Amino acid sequence: EAIKANKDNKGPQAPDVIDVGFSFGESSKSEGLLAPYKVATWDTIPADAKDADGYWYGDYYGVLAFLVNTDVQPDVPQDWADLLDPKYNGQIALSGDPRVSNQAIQSVYAAALANGGSLDDAQPGLDYFAQLNAAGNLIPLIANNGLVATGEIPIRITWDYNALAAIDTFEGNPNATVVIPATGRFAGVYVQAISAYAPQPAAARLWQEFLYSDEGQLLWMKGYCHPIREADLRERGVIPQDLLDKLPDVSGAVFPSLPQLNTAAELITTNWDSAVGADVQAAP
């Protein structure tokens, strides 16, 4: 929207680059809003996380995780199947309403992968959450870190970078931990692109070169995000040990294509009410 609103404006409010959710890269390209550019490290960006012609490219991603208040629930779940255990009755919540929230939609999608589904079949995710709701384990509230801290929602399903940052803010009160589930490891990608109407296109290209350099990619890791070139950085051994120690192992995380993501989102948003029946609302 910022690009469209400032096509003829070269002032400071006109963006040179954008950082947007995965689906907006392709839609912005189709609207003619982006200028192609391939950074020097282009070949180390995974093919499924970039436009082949250089119009958009993933910059970082998160993996869905469980943030657990261990003062309230010391028996920490390690996988999606564990959440069905009666000991978690009234303890689990999503970080959004799956009828409208991308984070919540993708949480259902991730659960599908852990329960016999695939990137082409998200239905088992709805079936799983129907079970979770019927068991009384799913709280129909939108989780946030404050509700985890008070113990009202001891287990929050959220992106790992949000969960890890939350633990820093808790400062040990409460004690908490982050779990990357053993199965159903699902990655959500954000993408960078250069505006076709950038007031400073050369500066935009220099900025992208910095972001996709080793130095720029390591900055994402300092904020608990997974840089898109993480596999290459690990392979070459250029990640400082202190950063490696801070980040969980997310090996095996999968990246859906845009058509797969759109199909799953349509299925989940359309069928959540009939399949699951949990009216997820913001906390009062």
Question: TL;DR of this structure?
Answer:
The chain is of the alpha+beta class. The chain has helices at 2-5, 22-30, 102-113, 123-134, 145-150, 160-170, 201-211, 214-222, 230-236, 241-246, 258-275, and strands at residues 17-21, 34-35, 57-69, 92-94, 155-159, 176-179, 187-195, 226-227.
For this entry, give a set of tags.
D-Maltodextrin-Binding Protein, domain 2; eight-stranded mixed beta sheet; 8 strands; single chain
Q: What is the CA-based Rg, rounded?
A: 20 Å
Helix percentage: 25-40%
In CATH, the architecture of the largest domain is: 3-Layer(aba) Sandwich
Strand count, sense and barrel status of the largest sheet are:
8 strands, mixed
* Number of H- or I-type helical stretches: 11
The averaged pLDDT comes out at: 95
CATH class of the largest domain: Alpha Beta
**CATH domain fold name of the largest domain:** D-Maltodextrin-Binding Protein, domain 2
One letter per element, helices H and strands E, the order comes to: HEHEEEHHHEHEEHHEHHH
Helix/strand-derived class?
alpha+beta
Apparent shape: globular
Question: Could you give the distance between the termini?
Answer: 32 Å
Low-confidence runs of at least 5 consecutive residues: none
Q: Beta fraction of the residues?
A: 15-25%
When the domains are counted, the total is 2
CATH superfamily of the largest domain: Periplasmic binding protein-like II
Total number of strands: 8
